[in-house]
Give the backbone structure.
Amino acid sequence: MTPVNPLAAGAAGRFVTVEGIDGAGKSSHIAALADWARARGVEVVLAREPGGTPLAEKLRGLFLHEPMDALTEALLVFAARRDHLRSVIEPALARGALVLCDRFTDSTFAYQGAGRGFDGAVLAQLEGWVQQGRQPDLTLWFDVDPAIAAQRRAAARDADRLEREDEAFFARVRGGYASRAQAAPARFARIDSSQPLDAVRADAIDALASRGWYRV
Ligand code: TMP
């Protein structure tokens, strides 16, 4: 197969987001996805939300640890997202890079929308202002039963404000992801994250490879 070099002039960057409830295990697979793409000569930019710039990382600290209502949560994550998009994501995509972002706006619809019950129409309006039409090319949704995720979270120390939410909250968040996936099936790839680690990793890499953007 002919190698596709996204660094070639005019080649489009790719924006891949990674999603799931806390404890789904998504973050541990991002490095494997990056290694896979780098082995094919692709420039990979690793990012996370909220965060990814000095300003957005400060907002992340506030978001994760200060008590606040759902509207304030939404405004903070979208403020962080705006800075991240302008400073990191858009320039990287313009260079032809693969941007692998740990969480993006599906998190906002799932956590603030479905989890907190905040108005999805307001979130959609903020999304429009902040993203100016930018959407991920692919979203890897690491899906797992909230009971399994709760066990995994219990094994980790120092839970933040969101991670201390109960199982019912995470069941709603999971439902939020399911609705987002149903509304955009071409963009979403659901990965069964209850499988052994190796199988989850293989499925995630397959989902990226099967897009045909890079040689396999
Ligand atoms: P992380 O633990 O995966 O880094 O994510 C930080 C937390 O922030 C996680 O509990 C999900 C939450 N979050 C939201 O509630 N809304 C958002 O828009 C984003 C990006 C994250």
Notes: The domain at 14-209 is CATH 3.40.50.300 (Rossmann fold).
